[in-house]
Design a protein that fits this description.
Radius of gyration of chain A: 24 Å
Number of helices of chain A: 10
Structural class of chain A: alpha/beta
CATH architecture of the largest domain in chain A: 3-Layer(aba) Sandwich
Oligomer: homotetramer
Order of helices and strands of chain A: EHEHHEEHHHEHEHHH
Number of strands of chain A: 6
Chain lengths: ~260, ~260, ~260, ~260
C-alpha cells in the first residue's frame, strides 16, 4: 500500500501549518493511501555535523547522530513520499525544518557510496504557512533541495497561506490536493521500474560531446557574423568590442 | 509518441547553455521520445501586458499578443513536457526566459475560465548555466513557477553549471538525465487518466474543516499548559508573556 | 569604537566557511573597527518556539528561551553590525544558522511593542560556502531577512565560494571586503541620528493617498484606450477580453 | 542635490505597483531629495545579448545595444540611487524588469575593465506587488543582484503587497519609507569618500592567508578528537566513518 509521511515543522500542533497539513492528510487518504504524521518539534533532532566536508564518504545512512532521526529514516525508507509543512520564519523554513532537511543528506549522499540516492523516485509535497510574505521563497528552497535528492514533485505539489486570517476555501482545496497529488503520483510511480539516473559511460558521453561540439561549432560560425553585424549596426563606437569577439572566435571555452 | 520541447534561453546557440540543453535532448531521445529545440532569441517574444490585473478573465489562451508565442503555444499544447535552459543573468533567468515564462500564464489562468490549467500533468525540467553563482536560485524560481502552473518535475529534474571552464563529466551526465527523466516521467504519466485537481465542494471542505478544527482544539488544550510551563521554567522574568499567551487561548485565529 | 560581530555557522571551525569569515575579520580590523567571532555550534541555541503566532506581544527582547542567545543578544545590542557566515546545506543556510536568524525575531518584533526594531540601522554582511551550488539562494534569503529586520547591507556586502577547491584570490579579496565594507558603513552611519522609520500619521497617509489615486485615475483614463487599441490591433478574435477590460474600468481595485 | 530614480516595471501606470512606487516617491521628497519616475514599459528596452560570454571585455558602458537604455544609463550615472518597482509575475520580477536589470551589467562589468563598478556606492530600494505569493522571492533576487553590482540597501529598503485588495496603511507606510530611506542613506553616503573595494595585493592576501591557515590548522587539531569522540559515542557502528575522517586529517582541502 502507498504510504505518505507528513511532517509538521511548526512548534504549534494546533495552528494553521498543522491545519493545512491535516487537509493534505485528508487528500492522501482520499485516494486510498496510508498516512502518518510527525511533529518535528516533538523529536530530538540535532543539527547536521557536516561530516561530508571532512570526507565525502563519512556521510551515509544511517547518520552518525543517534537521535530520533534514526526512527524517521526507517519510516522514510519504507514510505512512498513525504509532505513537509513549515511555518515561515523570516521568509524561509523554520530552523527545525531546516535541520530535518539537512539530516536527509545521508540518503542522497549514498550516490557517492552505493551509486544511488535512497530517496530516488519518492514523491514530495510542501506546505508553507505564515502571516506575512516569504511563502514561495520558502517553498522554492525546499522543493529544489528535494528534487536534487531524487524526489519528484507532482502538479500543484505545494501550497501556502500567508495571511493573518482564516485560509480561504481555495487554500484549503490546494492543501487537500497537495496530499492527493503526492499520493496519486506515488501510485503511478509505484509500478515504474526504471532507475532515475542513467550513468552513461565516459565513452558514451564522449560520443555525445563530440556531436554536440560539432553542432556548436557550426552554429557559432553561423552566428558570429550576425552577432557582429548586429553590434556593428547598433553602435560602431566601440571597435574594441568587435575585435574582442573576433578574438574569442578561436577561444571557445568548451572544446 | 512522447514529445518533449527544449527551449534555449541563451542568445548564443553555441555556448554552454546550448551545449547542456543538447545533452538533455540526447537523454530525451535515449528513451525513445521525440524532441524539438527552439532558440527563444530567434523568436519575436513580447513582454506580458498584465491583462490579468485589469480583469482575471482577460488572460486566456491564446494570448492577446500576436507574436511567435502563438506558434509555441500550439507546440506546447501538443507536447508532453518542456525543458527550459537559461543562462544565469544576475542570479536569475535571462529577461528573455522570464518573458517566455510570463507568457505561459495564458495556460494556467484557464483554471479560472474553464476550470483546468492547460499544462496540467505535463513534465518539466530546467537547466541553468553561468560562470559565477546563482544557478540554484535561478532554477528554484523557474521550478516553483512551473509546478504552480501544473507541471510536474521528475527526480533530478534540473542541472546546472557555474564555472568558467568545461563542464565535468558529472555535469554532462546530469544534463543527459534531465532530458531522460523528463521523457521517462512523461511516459509513465501518459497512461494516467486522473485529473490533478480535485475540486472538493464547499460541503466536503466544511466537513474536513470541522474535523481538523476539533483536532486542533484538542491539541491546543493539550499543548498550552506545556508551552506555558516551559516558558515559565525558562524565564519567569516576563509575566506579560504568560498573560498574553493565556489571553490568546480564547482567540484562536482559525476557528 | 565600531564593533562588528562575526558568526561562524559551520560545525567546523577550520574549514572554508571559517577561513573566509576570518578574511572578513581582517577586513573589519583594516579600517580600525573591533571584531569578535562566535562559533554558533559551540553555543546552546534552541529553536524558536513561535510564541509570536500565539500572541504578537509574546515575542520580545529578551526571548523566553534561556540559552546562550541571551549572551549573544547583549553582544548584538552593543555592536554596530554583524557578519553571518554559513555553510551551504541544501542550497540554504545550515539549520543552526537558521535557528540563529529565527531567534533574532525578538529584536525586530519590538516594532510592535516599543515602536522600533532593536537592530535598526545596524550593518550586516553575509558569507556562504559550499562545494556545489546554492550560494546566492542562501545569501539572498539571509540578506532579505536582515534588511527586513532593520539592518542595512553595504556595497559588495556578501561573498561566496562554491567549489571543492581552494578559493581564488578574488574570493579572498571579496571576503576581506565584506568585513571592510560592513565596518566602513557602520562608521559612516555611526554619526547618523535619523530614525529609519517615519511613522506617518493616518492623515498624512490619506493626503498622499488622495494625490496618488488622482494620478492613477488620470493615468488609467489615458492608458485604457491605448491598451484596448493595442489589444484590438493584435487580436480581434476575443471580444470578451475587450469587454472585460472595459468593465474593469469602473472596478479599480484600489480606490 | 540628492537624486533618486524610480522605475515602474508594471505595464499598468495606474495599478498598485505604480501606486506604491509613488508613495516611495513621496518618501524621497520628504527628506528633500529630487526624484524622477520612469515607466519601463514606455521604453524600448531590448534583451541583453550576453556579449560577456563571448568575451569579458565586450560588456562595457555604454552597452552595444542602441535603445532607450542609453538615456537611462546617463540618468543612473548622475543619480544617487534607484528604486525598482516590479509586478510579481510567477514569483519573480516581470520579464521587462529582468531585462532592465540584465542591462545594468555594463555598469558592473567595468570592474574588469576600469577597476570599478560604475554604480558602486549608489543606494537601492525595491517594491514588489502582486495578488498572490512570491513577493519576497522576487525582492531577494533583485536585492542580491543590486548589492553584487555595488549598490547598498538601507534598513527596511524594500516593501511588498500581495493581496487582491487595497494595501493596508502599514504597507503604504512601508512604501513611503523605502523612498525615504533610500534618499536618507544616499545623503549620508554623499559625503563618504572611501572606495568600496580594497584591492589587496597578492602579498597582503598571502600574509592574511598564512595567518588564517595557521589558525585553522590549530582549530582542526583541537576539533578533530572531539568530533571523533562525539561520533564514536553516538554510533560505533560504522568504523569507516572514523577511519575516513582520520584520513582526511592530512587532506585539508585548503592549504
Amino acid at each position: 500500500m502507498i504510504k505518505i509521511l507528513l511532517f509538521n515543522g511548526s512548534p504549534r500542533s494546533y495552528g494553521l501549518t498543522y491545519t493545512l497539513l491535516n487537509f493534505a492528510l485528508k487528500g492522501v487518504s482520499s485516494v486510498g493511501a496510508e498516512s502518518k504524521l510527525f511533529n518535528l518539534y516533538d523529536l530530538e533532532l540535532r543539527p547536521c555535523l557536516g561530516c561530508l566536508s571532512d570526507n565525502q564518504n563519512s556521510c551515509r545512512y544511517p547518520c552518525v547522530i543517534d537521535d530520533d532521526m534514526q526512527k524517521i529514516y526507517n519510516e522514510i525508507l519504507s514510505s512512498n513520499g513525504i509532505i513537509v509543512a513549515t511555518p515561515i520564519y523570516w521568509f524561509a523554513p523554520s530552523g527545525t525544518v531546516k535541520n530535518f532537511i539537512d539530516r536527509l543528506t545521508v540518503f542522497e549522499n549514498m550516490i557517492f557510496i552505493s551509486g544511488r540516492s535512497l530517496v530516488e523516485g519518492k514523491v514530495a509535497g510542501v506546505i508553507a504557512v505564515g502571516n506575512d510574505g516569504g511563502a514561495v521563497q520558502t517553498i522554492s528552497a525546499i522543493v529544489s533541495a528535494l528534487i536534487s535528492m531524487g524526489f519528484t514533485v507532482p502538479p500543484f505539489g505545494f501550497c501556502y497561506h500567508t495571511r493573518d486570517e482564516e485560509p480561504s476555501e481555495n487554500t484549503l482545496r490546494d492543501a487537500f490536493n497537495v496530499g492527493r497529488n503526492v499520493a496519486l503520483l506515488a501510485k503511478v510511480l509505484d509500478k515504474n521500474e526504471s532507475s532515475w539516473y542513467d550513468v552513461k559511460t565516459v565513452e558514451e558521453l564522449s560520443a555525445i560531446k563530440e556531436e554536440v561540439n560539432m553542432l556548436c561549432k557550426l552554429n557559432k560560425e553561423g552566428a558570429l557574423p550576425k552577432r557582429k553585424v548586429l553590434i556593428n549596426k547598433l553602435t560602431p563606437k566601440d571597435n574594441l568590442v568587435l575585435a574582442s569577439i573576433e578574438k574569442s572566435k578561436d577561444e571557445n571555452k568548451y572544446k
